[in-house]
Amino acid sequence: MKTKQNVVIKGTKDGLTLHLNDKCAFNELLEELKEKMDAVNGQEHGSIITVTVQAGNRYLLDEDIKEITELISQREHLAVEAVKSNVMTMEEAIRWKEESEVVSYTGRIRSGQVLEVPGDLLLIGDVNPGGTVRAGRNIFVLGTLKGVAHAGCYGDDEAVIAAGRMMPSQLRISRYLNRAPDRYEEEESLETECAYIDDSNQIVVDRLQVLKHLRPDISTFKGGNHVG
Amino acid sequence: MGEAIVITSGKGGVGKTTTSANLGTALALQEKKVCLVDTDIGLRNLDVVMGLENRIIYDLVDVVEGRCKIHQALVKDKRFNDLLYLLPAAQTTDKSAVQPEQMKKLVDELKQDFDYILIDCPAGIEQGYKNAVVGANKAIVVTTPEKSAVRDADRVIGLLEKEEGMEPPKLIINRIRSHMMQQGDMLDVDEVAAHLSIELLGIVADDDEVIKSAHNGEPIAHNPNNRVSIAYRNIARRVLGESVPLQQLEDSKDGFFTRLKKFFGVRS
């Protein structure tokens, strides 16, 4: 006779939530989960119910998640939507932090030099021809961009590139690429511009002001009063 | 304790050797004790430009491999009284004959006896470049106002800036043709300097006399009247810490173009 249940099933308006005990041994947990799943056998009726698994303070390996998902998915009317856990590894946390932070760099990226950051890049300086800047997310260059910029280099189509003077030899966003015109006119690109992927999967260069509407997510400013 | 200055460019044919020979001569004219080191092993020619080719007995590789003492390999320039020496490169082997540590030891040893050690770097950024740079504490980047040369200079500056114990490199723009610059057929001095954004040490005009003097094995810096010679002498004075204004490119006249540009508010 168990005093405490390791698997608690709760129904919400969004479906079922399975709360898993994070203190017991994992195989005990699996056993009980299997029992519970067998128990619901026979109650099957028409519509599919989504299931969210809440693992609490237990760290789940990918294979653990797979095992849990498989156990639940055996019941045809149950679909696992998410397996959540409060815990992440140090490695994941660092990656998460890196991918979401803006890295600033002061200096000039010269021919042959490559600057790569996992998140956003703020370059306070120029990129000379032959130099390359690469970022997992957006690239902002305060100076002149004459070299190559590759935003969203791990496959983020939403990434943008902005530069004080946009005179790149090549722009790349995610897996798309755009070459510069063969020569720049002197008067061109005197104002800050941005590049993004438009609806037809082309990289286009436009006024900086359009960013606010196209990529509102770039703004992380929260709270306070916006005066004016 | 002397200073070791590497003269490099990345691209070949922009005038590293000419600059080494003339800067060395100009520094010697200022009563400094100078040693020129040719690190272009296998393709030496600083000795030819200096007119010292047939006095070579030992070379850099002989020194490094212990076949002779440093002072035995140094070739003295007879035009000076014990001020200018050349350590020639070997012609029979290649760049891999010397390791960076050996070069550093060699340059450190030369620093004891000389005020300035000018290291003439081979073109490229491989072994020869590494050997030339390792012992230096200062660097001069030579470029011409051509896109390809500027691109390579940019690359080399990037590498030099990463070098430990190296002061920020300085720039010499060589072989300037002022009429082409004025017509906009060539990058102008401001453009090159802005692009590379390092301190400009001097500008040198393109002059037939330079080729002639190299042909005769007498560096042009010996000639007190030539404009290129004066440019190199000015550079030498700037190396010594004096503040000397840049040479006027076009002889005297504030040209028609300059006035026209000023009139239209174009930065010249």
Automatic annotation (TrEMBL), chain A:
Interacts with MinD and FtsZ. This is Probable septum site-determining protein MinC. Keywords: Cell cycle, Cell division, Septation. The keyword Cell cycle applies. Residues 7-82 form the Septum site-determining protein MinC N-terminal domain. Belongs to the MinC family. Cell division inhibitor that blocks the formation of polar Z ring septums. Rapidly oscillates between the poles of the cell to destabilize FtsZ filaments that have formed before they mature into polar Z rings. Prevents FtsZ polymerization. It comes from the Bacteria. Residues 106-205 form the Septum formation inhibitor MinC C-terminal domain. NCBIfam families: minC. InterPro entries: CAP/MinC_C, MinC, MinC_C_sf, MinC_N_1, Septum_form_inhib_MinC_C. GO terms for biological process: cell morphogenesis; division septum assembly; regulation of cell septum assembly. HAMAP family: MinC. The keyword Cell division applies.
Automatic annotation (TrEMBL), chain B:
One of its GO terms (cellular component) is cytosol. CDD domains: MinD. One of its GO terms (biological process) is negative regulation of cell division. Keywords: ATP-binding, Cell cycle, Cell division, Nucleotide-binding, Septation. InterPro entries: AAA_dom (IPR025669), MinD (IPR010223), MinD_FleN (IPR025501), P-loop_NTPase (IPR027417), ParA/MinD_ATPase (IPR050625). ATPase required for the correct placement of the division site. Cell division inhibitors MinC and MinD act in concert to form an inhibitor capable of blocking formation of the polar Z ring septums. Rapidly oscillates between the poles of the cell to destabilize FtsZ filaments that have formed before they mature into polar Z rings. PANTHER family: SEPTUM SITE-DETERMINING PROTEIN MIND HOMOLOG, CHLOROPLASTIC, SEPTUM SITE-DETERMINING PROTEIN MIND HOMOLOG, CHLOROPLASTIC-RELATED. Belongs to the ParA family. MinD subfamily. This is Septum site-determining protein MinD. It comes from Bacillus aerolatus. The lineage of its organism: Bacteria, Bacillati, Bacillota, Bacilli, Bacillales. The gene is minD.
